Amino acid sequence: MSTELVLLGTxxxxxxxxxxxxxxxAIVTGGGTYIxxxxxxxxxxxxxxxxxxDSMRAVFVTHHHSxxxxxxxxxxxxxxxxxxxxxxxxxxxxxxxxxxERFLELNEFDIATRIADEGRPPLRPLxxxxxxxxxxxxxxxxxxxxxxALVDHPPIPTAFAYRFDTADRSIVVSGDTxxxxxxxxxxxxxxxxxxxxxxxxxxxxxxxxxxxxxLRQHLVRSHTSVEDVGAVAQAAGVxxxxxxxxVPSDGDISDERWHALASxxxxxxxxxxxxxxxx
Length: 279
Fold this sequence. Notes:
Largest sheet: 7 strands, mixed
Strand content: 25-35%
Mean pLDDT: 97
CATH superfamily: Ribonuclease Z/Hydroxyacylglutathione hydrolase-like
Number of domains: 1
Oligomer: single chain
Strand order of the largest sheet: 6-5-4-3-2-1-14
Number of strands: 14
CATH topology: Metallo-beta-lactamase, Chain A
Shape: globular
Helix content: 25-40%
Low-confidence stretches: none
């Protein structure tokens, strides 16, 4: 079976969007599913994509902004309440272990009731959370090798990009980052790079709708302009650049505009991502 990348959610930022779901990706290979980030609605997006919950093998968190982890625990709970019953490893920066334990405590009543009343297996033993603070290989099995790089997403102290190398493809997910040499090195020669994008002319409108006094500073210093992302892909020598984590997500920016700006200085294929797109 060939490796597929499924864009479960392509929005950026913590607020619910009308046109896009929150950040999440699925890499499907060898009959297993590897999930990157767990934005709000990730379980429903998996269902919409017809990806079986019981194919889930590992979950990777890029960083702990809420748009990337709001449904981290809910993914496990809802998958378990469907048909998932095999152990899964979760990887990400601290405090991933504490988050996992607190979520299980929060839902202890529901979990215990379903075990006793419905005969479901215990949930806690199915999840093993691994905390990472350094770059390097984080997961390896018969179907995939996953390598992490530390990227620049201030003020978050530990934010990762992940590279998935399978028998037939290499796929890199940038997470949230500024232009970052470590990401370029991680993506060197990859078939596909999924990269976040920011449209700077829209910043004024985004800030005007927000209650965050320093949001402008955050957007400018911790994300990558769509005008710069093509140069990142070119420097890495990737084959295909996939745009995602759009900021803004509900703006009136056409796909053609995103595509034209991202294509500057890049010789490869550019794909403007959308929810549930299979690549």
